[in-house]
Write a structure and sequence with these properties.
Structural class: alpha+beta
Strand order of the largest sheet: 2-1-6
Shape: globular
Largest sheet: 3 strands, mixed
Helix content: 25-40%
Radius of gyration: 18 Å
Distance between the termini: 36 Å
Number of strands: 7
Length: 166
């Protein structure tokens, strides 16, 4: 039984990695920001990058073409995060150090352009801590290309609440 499960997981990994191959075609309409998102954006400048390689600025600027230029010859794998009913495009590169295929390892990648982070209570939340990644994704479920990570409203737990729960 263990051999069958190991084989099935290996096959799933190979399929996932194959799915994030580089596209040879032009971006589809789904990959492009909407007209309203395009207004007022410019190409990123070198001033927008910090010395540590963190990206600063308007996230609409960091589409697939930006990441392909920044990481040439790498497979840029797309996925989305659903936030309040709207899906936002994000990417990852599986060859970067520390990548284990989970949303938690993605947090440390430069593709996390808008401040998703882990809180003291163990939740993965957005920059303003109003949304959190649902427990099924935050618990270590592996991501695949073109998957959609779901979110829900986040209410921080206080230290007193955490003590009473245990």
């Amino acid at each position: 039984m263990k051999k069958i499960l190991a084989f099935a997981l290996a096959a799933l990994m190979v399929t996932s990695l194959a799915a994030c191959g580089k596209k040879d075609t032009k971006p589809t309409e789904d990959d492009k920001p909407s007209t309203s998102e395009q207004q007022g954006t410019t190409e990123p400048t070198s001033e927008e990058e910090t010395t540590e390689g963190e990206i600063q600025g308007d996230p609409v600027e960091y589409g697939r073409e930006f990441w392909e230029a920044k990481y040439p010859n790498e497979n840029i794998c797309p996925f989305t995060i659903e936030e309040n009913g709207k899906e936002y495009n994000y990417y990852w590169v599986s060859s970067l150090e520390g990548w284990d295929g989970t949303i938690e390892s993605w947090l440390k990648q430069p593709f996390n352009w808008n401040g998703w982070h882990k809180t003291a209570d163990g939740c993965i939340v957005n920059k303003d801590e109003t949304l959190k990644i649902t427990d099924d994704w935050a618990s270590g479920e592996g991501m695949s290309s073109f998957c959609t990570i779901t979110t829900e409203k986040y209410t921080p737990t206080s230290a007193a609440d955490a003590t009473q729960a245990s």
